[in-house]
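Please check this one:

***
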Amino acid sequence: MDGEEIIAVQPQGRFRSDNGAALASAAATGLGIAWLPDCVTHEYLASGTLVPVMTRYPLPVGGVYVVRPPGPRPSRKVRILSELLVESFERNPHL
């Protein structure tokens, strides 16, 4: 976003991954830039290995969702995992 204008970027490069840790490591070694959640970049930012770029252009806020099998009563293990995740993200919103 630039004010009210949406700016689309189509990055191109030699390295692709769907693994945040691999992308952070690649960016930290100088391979390029990456758009990653704070929970992946926190230690890199704290150490100065990675630095924020394009701070004038805020990114859209993301969400975290639990997708579970349909039905009014999830299994005990699904319910416990869902509750654990909700509690964890409430306690540590930067995860």
Summary: Residues 70 and 78 are 11 Å apart (CA to CA).
